[in-house]
Design brief:
Blueprint (H helix, E strand, L loop, with lengths): L1 E6 L4 H14 L5 E6 L3 H6 L6 H4 L1 H18 L14 H9 L6 H13 L8 H10 L4 H8 L2 H16 L7 E4 L2 E4 L4 H14 L2
Parallel strand pairs: 1-2
Antiparallel strand pairs: 1-3, 3-4
Helix pairs in contact: 1-4, 1-6, 5-8, 5-9, 6-7, 7-8
Length: 201
């Protein structure tokens, strides 16, 4: 059974799920599939030119307090980044180029940690280069791959696929045709995947 995690690097709640998903799947037969995409085009479909947490300041204030509580609950460091939402396009392109690489999960976690644990600007090429070095790969090679037209097309196609699947926020989880939205549904998605796995002959 496969669990797809659809995430956006600018998403606060994606930080929580990306940080925990591999540990939660450890010891199961569930395959994890990373699905980076961009929320911006999907928000624009709804007439928003930015995050709904900016559009609605009351909702935004709640989100930041909720992030503090949930990070404390999960034992994750958290700082409110000075820029929100950040431009995660370069990180998403690198992740898209690296989806078949064994270090892509490490890259995703490190990017989120840089942003939400350290308050670092992940749109800064120097920050992403340091993260790639930490993943023990050559930054120049992966920046070049991220700029290839095939990588850019693949990310656009992933965003279109998310739209067609009815994904409207991040993180979202797909198990077969079953869609779960939000970090607070991660464990529900895993439980559903386990139940499907157990029914296999």
């Amino acid at each position: 059974m496969k669990l797809e995690i659809w995430f956006e690097f600018a998403s606060t709640y994606s930080y929580l799920s990306v940080s925990r998903v591999e540990a939660l799947l450890s010891g199961t037969q569930i395959e994890l599939a990373w699905r980076p995409f961009l929320l911006g085009p999907i928000f624009r479909d709804r007439g928003w030119d930015t995050s709904p947490f900016i559009v609605d300041p009351i909702k935004g204030a709640y989100m930041w307090r909720d992030m503090e509580r949930r990070c404390k609950q999960y034992g994750l460091p958290f700082v409110r980044p000075p820029i929100f939402p950040i431009n995660g396009l370069s990180a998403a392109r690198i992740m898209t180029a690296a989806l078949d690489e064994p270090w892509c999960g490490d890259f995703a976690r490190l990017v989120f940690a840089a942003q939400f644990a350290c308050g670092t600007d992940i749109s800064d090429e120097a920050v992403l280069r340091c993260i790639l070095v930490e993943c023990d790969v050559a930054p120049g090679e992966w920046f070049a791959k991220a700029q290839q037209s095939s990588t850019k097309s693949k990310l656009r196609e992933a965003t279109d696929q998310a739209r067609n699947l009815g994904i409207f926020g991040a993180p979202s989880f797909l198990v077969g045709d079953e869609l779960f939205w939000g970090d607070d549904r991660l464990q529900d998605a895993i439980a559903f995947a386990k139940a499907v796995e157990q029914k296999k002959p």
